[in-house]
Amino acid sequence: MTHKASYNALPPRAQNACRRFALLPRTITIDEGLAIALGGASLRTARSLLNTLAQATFLTKDGAEEGRGPVFSFQPAARDYVRDRAGTKGETAESVLPALLDWLLVTACSVEAPVTPSHAVFPRRYTTSPTPVQFASKTESMAWMENQMPNVMAAVRAAMEAGMYWQACSLVHAMQPAWKANPQYGRWIEAHELGLQAAQECHDRAAARVMAITLGTGLRKMGEHTRARTQFWSVLRSAVADKDIHMTAQAFHELGCTPGTTPADARQHLLTARDIWDAEDCQRGVGLTDIELGRWEQEHGLPAEAAARLTEAHRILTAISDAYEAARAEAFLSLALACTGDLDAARAHALHAHEEFIACRAPWWAARTHEILGLNAEEHGTPVEAGDWFALSLAAFRSLRSDSDVERLRSHFSRLS
Predict the structure, then answer these.
(1) 3-state class of 63 per DSSP?
(2) Over 80: is that where the pLDDT of 40 sits?
(3) CA dihedral defined by 373, 374, 378, 380, rounded to 10 degrees?
(4) Residue 123 carries which DSSP code?
(5) Which residue, 2, 160, 127, is CA-closest to 77?
(6) What is the per-residue burial (b if ≥16 Cβ within 10 Å, else e) of 235-247?
(7) How many percent of the chain have pLDDT more than 90?
(8) How far is CA 203 from CA 29, 82, 102, 198, 266, in A?
(9) What is the pTM of this model?
(10) Which residues lie below 8 Å from residue 40, measured CB to CB, with a gap of 6+?
(11) How far apart are CA 374 and CA 404, in angstroms?
């Protein structure tokens, strides 16, 4: 049957859904939540429409994803025909883009609020009346966010092309839990470069600072330290000019974490950030900067001081229920304790941190804690145990396709051989 015959055989409501799905960015995959958002349908109707379009071969069922349920893609061979039919009714890609962006944003915000409650929130501006997906658990909501990431990137690119700059910037920002939990830095950098451009197009200096600081952290993780420092200094100048105390502290913090300055300057940047956080009674800022000061002390031969500072960071972050950052403090605390000779405590903290990262759906850090356990075992002369932990970490990093981490683990094995 031709595309024309198949389309003409569809009920009117299915034809309408078919046109709207065809007008989405080409790489977008469609689930029940998106079908509801685009068609104003109930869940039952959305399921029926998706199944009808799949039976008519306009959609292909690609399986199911956690947090999303059944996932469909539009048949490339049929897309152009259906888009032409949409054009005859005056429908364009720009007519469905707002609903896509609003639905992604409102759902991402519903995930973001309980997962990262201290994350600064931009004003949310919707052009439609979106309803977020309802999740049964935090785990399910994080799975939705991670599995929607390809759709989010496609939507952000489309928003930039359409001049919908605030929506693009807001969506990049709202996806913060996914950036932290499973950092894919190439995607991270692209998204935040677009987000920064979008904030600048909106002439919103505060939003531009947030985008630039997060872009800089991604660049630092990729080893682009000069570009990262450029972003952080730009944020610092802008924040000081606008009397933005929070971002002034954040910029000093990031400069202190970034290679390319002397150890003394790095420490002073971190101490300056900590003093600002303390004066503002921002306990989370104090805790996060104490993690970095503890790492500095560890790297400069002061493991006892590092352990004391990281213990305090862990206490602060646990008290404010920031499980992810508390687990980071605990992971670094494990390394410091191992260097002081307290291997039992080091092992206990690393294992507990690993459990927390699993609960937070942070697979990169879960793999990193296995690596830390291996490093601690190596430090205390138990190479067989070290190799076992390194093997677990290597397998996890391979599954994450993190080439730089895989290479680092291979170097650990070279030392053991």
Answers:
(1) strand
(2) no
(3) 20
(4) P
(5) 2
(6) bbebbeeeebebb
(7) 82
(8) 32, 38, 21, 9, 31
(9) 0.89
(10) none
(11) 18
